[in-house]
Amino acid sequence: SDVGSQKDRVVTEEEWLEKWEMGNIGFHKEEGHPLLRKYLDVLLNGRSGQRIFFPLCGKAVEMKWLADMGHSVVGVEISEQAVKEFFSEHSLPYCEEPVPEISGAKMFQSTSGNISLYCCSIYDLSSSIVGKFDGVWDRGALVAVNPCDRQHYASLMISLVEKNSSYLLVTVSYDPNKHKGPPFYVPEPEIKSLFG
Ligand code: SAH
Q: Which parts of the sequence bind S-adenosyl-L-methionine (predicted)?
């Protein structure tokens, strides 16, 4: 578990925006993630009307799945292109409005009101702005965060969840000397120390 080769790597917001512009988005899965299907019961625990958070959401199709099941979905994504593609690819009408607490941020909300996507950096969010969540789907999120920001990210996520929440985390396991990431390799002991 030598992660030395990745620990100083930084992917800037501009680089992420450029990936979206170039269509360099191999992380996006049109079919949705089999692990969410598999562990849906763990996320929902038989409860209806949950508030589910998608950090670093991209245009993840799983947001549509959960909304269609009657849950309320909140995502955050720095690429406005990604957010707009999400709504247009699912033919969902939406409106957009500024977020008064965050300079430059916009919130895109489906007209039906059950999907709200914040277009800003996740580090600009707080529970006073977005409230707290019953569930989190973290796929391509912790593993996309720069290694130097992991502690900040994890503390923020902990501050955004309710006491009885469920947090599904997808990571990737591989030799970090063979690929520079993202996705980054996050060793299991580090996950335990980040989230407790
Ligand atoms: N979770 C999604 C996307 C994973 S790729 C999926 O499963 O498909 C990571 C995404 O995070 C990219 O779309 C990138 O634009 C976005 N991103 C990177 N840094 C961010 C930040 N600080 N705040 C919000 N979004 C960010």
A: 16-27, 56, 77, 121-122, 139
The tens-digit pLDDT sequence of the chain (196 residues) is 456 689 999 999 999 999 999 999 999 999 999 999 999 999 999 999 999 999 999 999 999 999 999 999 999 999 999 999 999 999 999 999 999 999 999 999 999 999 999 999 999 999 999 999 999 999 999 999 999 999 999 999 999 999 999 999 999 999 999 999 999 999 999 999 999 8
Q: Please name the residue whose Cα sits nearest to atom 13 of ligand 1.
A: 58
Residue 53's nearest CA partner among 45, 62, 95 is 62
Domain of 96 in residue numbering reads as 13-24+32-195
> Is residue 195 classed as helix, strand or coil in its secondary structure?
helix
Residue type, 123: Y
Take atom 21 of ligand 1 and give the residue whose Cα is closest: 121
Q: Is 109 in the pocket of ligand 1 (CB under 6 A)?
A: no
Which CATH number do you get for residue 77? 3.40.50.150
**Interval between CA 58 and ligand 1 midpoint (Å):** 5
